[in-house]
Amino acid sequence: LPDNSVMNPTSDRNRRLFFLILAATTIIKLWMAYSIPFIGDEAYFYQWGKHIDWGGFYDHPPMVGWWLWGLQQISSSLIVLRLPAVILWIAIVFGMMDLQKRIQPGSEDKAWLLGSLFLLLPFTWSLNLITTDTPLIFFLFFSGYAFLRGELSDSLRWHAFSGVLLGCALLSKYFAGLLAIAYAVYFLPRGLRGWLRLVVIAVCALPFMLLNLAWNSSHCWNNILFNLFNRNEGSHFSLTHLAVYIAMMIYLITPWTGWRLLRAKVLTQQWQLTSLFFVPFALFFLLSFYKTIGLHWVLAFLPFVFLTVGIALNDDELRLHGRWNAFLGLPHLLALALLAYLPSSAFQGMKLHTDIVMHRDAKALINAIQQDRPGDSVIMTASYSSAALLSFHANEYLPVFGEGSFHARFDDNISNFADFDKKTILIVSTRRLDETSFTPYFESVSIRDLVVDDAHFWIAEGRGFKFDPYRENILKKIAATYYRMPSFLPLYGCRFLEQYGFERQNR
Q1: Residue 360 in contact with residue 37, Cβ under 8 Å?
Q2: What is the chain's Cα-based Rg?
Q3: How many CB atoms lie within 10 A of CB 343?
Q4: What is the pLDDT of residues 176-215, one digit of tens each?
Q5: Do residues 439 and 446 lie in contact, with contact meaning Cβ atoms separated by under 8 Å?
Q6: What is the distance between the alpha carbons of residues 472 and 466, in angstroms, rounded to a whole number?
Q7: Taking CA 157 as the corner, what is the angle to CA 155 and CA 162, rounded to the nearest 5 degrees?
Q8: What are phi and psi for residue 460, nearest 5 degrees?
Q9: Which three-class secondary structure state does DSSP give residue 445?
Q10: Who wins on pLDDT, 373 or 146?
């Protein structure tokens, strides 16, 4: 058979353009993965990999911790740790192009244009951080990929594979449940055939859900308390949240593509595809009246939006939208370059100056702390983000002193403050510390200022730590605030309550 690329110069040009954009954006992604300093969230999840667990961690299910454990066996360099995030959208774009050719036979030429348009979107090349969203996006997309393959071929094997991948997504983050709801909305009106396929997907996803539930039942129901209760306390009705959500969606989909998509009939003609993003986005819309919807919450469903775009738009429109995406990306690239290479002094006088110094010069900060460190002392911080970041650069685990916040309480399952009784503790903070807030818990306390690259840090040196008042005033409050469980949940273990001798408190 003749080579179609030879017979069709347009197809050859589209293919060459795609691989040129793929090469350019991959180079940018690798440069950013190497140049942008490790951030607090990444350092926090890195500690999950250092303290690997079999079924979950405080905030979320275990998948990113498992990935980071495996990557740490290779290296702890930034380029290795961030490699899954670098590869993520590349793998997804090939899956999108394959699906387009299957859904719209004869669109091989247009698939290259879809791939080019998607790779030029700022979020696909600028987000190269390894977080819980990395495995979530990967498994959610390929679960949707398998679902669509199953619908196109009427094969239960593809639906079973979709369920397995959905289970892996559920072991990444609970937002994966939104895709499960989308499957239900699509299948339930379709009679026995739809019910059968939904059951196949559910049964194949179930073992992964049970694994995490088993872990929760022996770990204070941490995931459930965090995701359903602790993080939602204080939520209230606000039209501002809704406005932010709508503006964010316009930015992510882009005004030109979003407007063209709204006018396309494909939204109703391809319900098996559009349900994969319409249902989650509708649920986010309702939730946005009470909570701010994070950008990272919606990323997993965007590939299905742009797959629909690839079906709806013609070749000329795809080329035009791709060019506009490239222009949109230029200020993003400039901003990231400035963030990576501007000297820290350029940010002096701004609130973020200290945070930038901490991220860029964490090793220098650690060395400065170590210079006058008493021999028996323990370094801690007052926040989870800085504790994780300094732990990464210090190559030793730093606990968190004080109540902390409702999220990132991984330290509750690592540290036992009874072990620090009578020891000297150095508490590092980016904010000025008040000596009187520490005096009940130490025999003596002194506060000193530490300057690194013109940024001020404060260290409270507490000598002779008193565990008993700390347990009564801090740990007991933490137990009452973050460890109150619904009475109907069976509990088979809770290290935090057990090691401090607290009783279970029910909601």
Answers
A1: yes
A2: 25
A3: 10
A4: 999 999 999 999 999 999 999 999 999 999 999 999 999 9
A5: no
A6: 11
A7: 105
A8: -95, 120
A9: strand
A10: 146
DSSP bridge partners of 505: 484
The partner residues of 462 in beta bridges, in order of sequence, read: 425, 445
CB 176 within 8 A of CB 170: yes
% of the chain surpassing 70 pLDDT: 99
For residue 297, give the nearest of 306, 289, 288 by alpha carbon.
288
Tell me the DSSP string of 401-425.
-S---SS--GGGGT--GGGGTT--E
SS3 183: helix
Global model pTM greater than 0.70:
yes
For residue range 402-429, what is the model confidence (pLDDT) as tens digits? 998 888 899 999 999 999 999 999 999 9
Of the candidates 45, 139, 103, the one whose C-alpha atom is nearest the C-alpha of residue 274 is 103
d(CA 101, CA 480): 55
Q: In angstroms, how far is CA 388 from the centroid of its own chain? A: 16
Measured at the CA of 273, the angle between CA 271 and CA 278, to 5 degrees, comes to 75
| Nearest-10 crossing angle of helices 362-371, 353-360 | 80
* pLDDT, tens digit, 9 for 90 and up, residues 475-488: 999 999 999 999 99
Spell out the residues 6+ positions from residue 325 whose beta carbon is closer than 8 angstroms to its own.
117, 120, 121, 122, 254
One-letter amino acid for residue 373 of the chain: R
Token output for 210: 């049970």
Three-class HEC string of 330-364: HHHHHHHHHHHHCCHHHHCCCCCHHHHHHHHCHHH
Each residue of 323-365: pLDDT tens digit?
999 999 999 999 999 989 999 989 988 888 999 999 999 999 9
Q: How far is it, in rounded angstroms, from Cα 429 to Cα 448?
A: 11
Long-range contacts of 291-299, Cβ-Cβ distance < 8 Å, separation of 24 or more: 291/232, 291/235, 291/241, 292/241, 292/244, 292/245, 293/241, 293/244, 293/245, 293/248, 295/123, 295/248, 295/252, 296/131, 296/133, 297/175, 298/248, 298/249, 298/252, 299/123, 299/127, 299/133, 299/137, 299/252
Token pair, residue 184, equals: 């239900």
Quickly tell me which residue has 């244009």 as its tokens. 113
- Helix or strand run (H / E) with residue 152: helix 133-153
User: Which whole-number Å values give the CA distances from 386 to 210, 313, 348, in the listed order?
Assistant: 33, 46, 20
Q: How many other CB atoms are there within 10 angstroms of residue 209's CB atom?
A: 19
State the amino acid at position 319 in one-letter form.
R
Distance of alpha carbon 44 from alpha carbon 407, whole angstroms: 11
